[in-house]
Task: structure prediction
Amino acid sequence: MKIMMMVPNRVLGILLIANVLMATRISFTCAIHPLLKRAPRSLLSPKQFPKSYPCPLWSSSFSFCLHTLHKSTSRAPSLSRYRSSLSAPSMAAATAVDEAIEANPLMRNFDFPPFDVVEAKHVRPGIRALLKNLDGDLVELERTVEPSWPKLVEPLEKIVDQLTVAWGIVNHLKSVKDSPELRSAIEEVQPEKVKFELRLGQSKPIYNAFKAIQESPDWSSLSDARKRIVESQIKEAILNGVSLEDDKRDQFNKIQQELERISQKFEENVLDATKKFEKLIMDKKEIEGLPATALGLAAQTAVSKGHENATAENGPWIITLDAPSFMSVMQHARNRSLREEVYRAYVTRASSGDLDNAAIIDQILKLRSEKAKLLNYNNYAEVSMASKMATVEKAEELLEKLRSASWNAAVQDMDDVKKFSKSQGALEADDLNHWDINFWSERLRESKFDINEEELRPFFSLPKVMDGLFDLAKTLFGIDIKPADGLAPVWNKDVRFYRVNDSSGSPIAYFYFDPYSRPSEKRGGAWMDEVVGRSRVLSRDGASARLPIAHMVCNQSPPVGNKPSLMTFREVETVFHEFGHALQHMLTKQDEGLVSGIRGIEWDAVELPSQFMENWCYHRDTLMSIAKHYETGESLPEEVYLKLLAARTFRAGSLSLRQIRFASVDLELHSRYVPGGLETIYDVDRRVSERTQVIPPLPEDRFLCGFSHIFAGGYAAGYYSYKWAEVLSADAFSAFEDAGLDDSNAVVETGHKFRETILALGGGKPPLEVFVEFRGRQPSPEPLLRHNGLLQVPASA
Result:
């Protein structure tokens, strides 16, 4: 399973749309077998890789030589027998084909994926050859399977891992280095991959073997992790249709194939619609108010589009719907008509013409409903909840509790913005619309807290932020992160590679970091995903486990000219968020590969470490360690830090409601909506918005057509997970508050406990048990409401 994590709550809230929000998306893609799920898809799915070495990183002793990702030695004799029966010309042709397959970078042994050399031309032959090999391995496993770890789980993990790694390379490149050729290649082989996943997920010999382990006298002696694996495999097999017979199984498989195809089409339409919008501006008066960083980015975009002489000062400038450009216009452009044009373009992405996702959404919802009925569930939300901590009822109960606590605060937020805009002589003060809210909210924030986020950028240069983040990780978790650029191939020159060492200096993990926006080829948002997971079975030396490798992807403002990437505070939060996901993958101590790191963790718990890490952005010592002026080295003034702290809860009610809207419409569409019925998907959104938005959406709002999280990622009937995990993460951080954030020994001690539980145990224990082991009690929503300043607000509406 891949976790593609997305943007934090505050960032999400500010982004006017779900897609932009979730940069910290765990990358997931809906696949069939539980271990082949890539979400982001991902949670986990999207993005990056570098130069290859002839064997993988298997252990802390750094003994290389990864498990071969392709050829099965059991097939070599049959191949030689086949060749012996061929004529000389045929044999030469067969040899040439074999050599081409062996030369395919997807079929090599490597320490790190060959991201630098994998091209679209390698996808069809590489994936097909791999699937052929894996099909033979599956046949052999079904023939020899026994209800034991060596005869069932270990060979299964090897099959799953090979496909996960190879497809992960391809899928990642599509997210970070998209091209028509790569899309076409993936589209062609994807049905074959899904067919194999269905075959694997519906294997009755494997299912029966897991059932036999569960029913054996030895069940009670299994470790918690092994019990979790068995229980998860049985549950996933049922959800994958193992119990269906004949016509129903065929119908299920057709549904799964079609869902995979149209979900991919949905994501492609969003990307293409985002790229399609370009606003060329020649007159600087039209973009008055945009900060220097935004002007530089707009001019840089213009240069890339053929306006060779474009400059930040004199233009021309090109505005796009990519997050850094879009948000700069929404927050800073004084030209109201420009804000309106860009906003309308954003909320109507992929809703017209050849890129219209409306029909695709209805078809996705229809197919998911049919799938649920085949599995004897009432609706798809119940299918989704079958593998989560919550139920539909408990998720809706939490959302309503948070909605009630947020409503009056959000009403007050809007009233404050209206009064302020009127005091500033805004002609639109009595009729504020969606394209006005962020602009005037930013002006109010600047006035109320004397903070200008753009003026803070020079204090948050990417190199300093990463240094401070790594220092925090060393303090809390006892790890040392070192640059390792050049050790692994990368997909873009801006990608960095790091090694994670333990306190003794031995490597325990690696990760890639792809920080900058590239709208022409890179999907929007932010996410983390696994490249390979920790695994005892895949150990090369038979003693130490294979080391985990992750990648983090963001879409922040790139360097302009000679300046480093200067970040907004929200971009800082996003980096901390994604790093939290990566830490859970990399610091796992679980050697059972099927539940190590982020694998096997219930979806509504995976955001705990990521949202937990965001809290440290407001911790004084942490913030001061990263907030250094990139030119002078001057520290962020103390009074500015105090203002940032005070501004933390600014518009907290509004931002909370925004997330609740997304989560609520997601559950409504997957539990009660009837495709083709009296209501349209937009009717449902408007109905939900009546209770979750102080200002209703525009009649032409089509944000659902860009809601990739639930229609092309892993968050279908699961977007509530952000709020569910936010309760857990706030409560986890409150353990540090209780211990004393100014007590360095207490922080280190609590950090060690967090690492040994939340980060170390992976999916080997139910997440609620893991939380209680760390916190010493059941989770409480009180810390979240306190952090958001919502405890004292009386509920209503």
Remarks:
- The first strand starts at residue 25 and ends at 26.
- Residues 1-86, 793-797 have pLDDT under 50 and may be disordered.
- The radius of gyration is 26 Å.
- Strands lie at 25-26, 279-281, 317-319, 480-483, 496-501, 507-516, 527-532, 549-556.
